[in-house]
Amino acid sequence: MKNSPAEITDYRRNSLQLVKYLAAFSVMWGHMVAHYGLNVPEWINRAVSFFSGVPLFFAISGFTIWLSLERNSAPRHYFLNRFFRIYPELWLGVCASVLSMIILYPPVRSSLAGAGYLAAFTVTQGTFFQFWTPGILRGFGVGTPNGSLWTICTLIQFYLIAILFYRFIKNKKIYWWFVFAGISIVSNLLKPSLKKLLPETVYKLYLQLMPVYFWIFCAGMFIARYRERIVPFLAKFWWGFLALAAVLHLTRWDLTFSYPFFTTLLLIAGMTGFAYALPGIATGFDLTYGIYIYHMIVVNIFVHTGITGTYRLLPVTVAITALCAAVSTAFGKLIRKRCSMRRLESDSMRK
Fold first, then answer.
1. Closest Cα partner for 47 from 25, 79, 19?
2. Cα(18)–Cα(287) distance, integer angstroms
């Protein structure tokens, strides 16, 4: 079903889930091809990588968080929702990752030090420091047991400041948006100098900080804030934005901050417009968070056991990941439902 721009009134009616699936597959494809050592034609890799996963996820997060805060910006409601959206499924994934190492990787069970590092890794993976991997675990799989989780740290930072940013900027003049986006851009321009000045560990920590990626979140929130004017335009000309993004992607002509600047903005604009121009192709269910959590667990197991170099691994990895994601999503929904019922009972008792 197609939407004419004039008909866009319900901004929850879109196909952003399909966009998230394209982004998730792009990330998973890149990891599978690289770590399985597959000689895939370059044009296929370029086509798949066009749907740049991390920027699309960040932008969609900015867009949906803004809409969520408009509906209810009470801090308790907001933070509880964010917590239960992230952590139950994350903890289940961390358990799966740790269990795979206990079974397949003797160093973590053959010494007290190995067990200690694994315990510390478990805590950091399940809290806020997903980008840290102790040296003893570098021998497992691809060298990072679940390296794709680094974005969790950035997302949590965004969720922590999003409510404050929303309250500050929602009634401010438009130039304030460019001030904050400019600060983010400057933080990227400083990276070459900081790389020379800072110790390597400190510089890697800097790369996880919110300002480096805030321009992407800001793009999503900006579209949500001015959606009545912006979204109908994007829905009408989404194909043009994607065409321009494709040209920049193929020619590699761009300014690269954390990601290619103009390509990323055009991609965000085009995919947002696509989602509202064609809302009838929404999937109805969202396994993308589970795909994001589990695909590298599966890849690491295959790599560590020496099962690589065959194209048959691609559908097998996708199938196993989808199954794990389905279980994870069902688990997350169950936890949220039970906790929501308890909160309602608690609130009714207070009254």
1. 25
2. 11
As a whole number of angstroms, the distance between CA 203 and CA 200 comes to 5
Q: Helix, strand, or coil here: 310?
A: coil
Domain residue limits at 120? 5-350
Q: Could you tell me if 258 and 212 are in contact, meaning their C-beta atoms sit under 8 angstroms apart?
A: yes
- Is the pLDDT at 4 greater than 70? The verdict is no
Contact present, 155 and 130 (Cβ < 8 Å): no
The model carries a pTM of 0.92
CA distance 7 to 2: 10
Strand-pair partners of 260: 256
Q: What is the structure's pLDDT at 5?
A: 57
In angstroms, the CA 43 to CA 64 distance is 32
Kindly state the average pLDDT of the residues 43-49: 94
Task: Count how many domains the chain has.
Answer: 1
Q: Which residues are CB-neighbours of 40 under 8 A, at least 6 positions away?
A: 33
Residue-wise over 277-294: b if at least 16 C-beta within 10 A, else e? bbbeebeeebbbbbbbbb
Q: Which two tokens stand for residue 221?
A: 């929130």
Kindly report, residue by residue over 287-343, the tens digit of the pLDDT.
Answer: 999 999 999 999 999 999 999 999 999 999 999 999 999 999 999 999 988 887 666
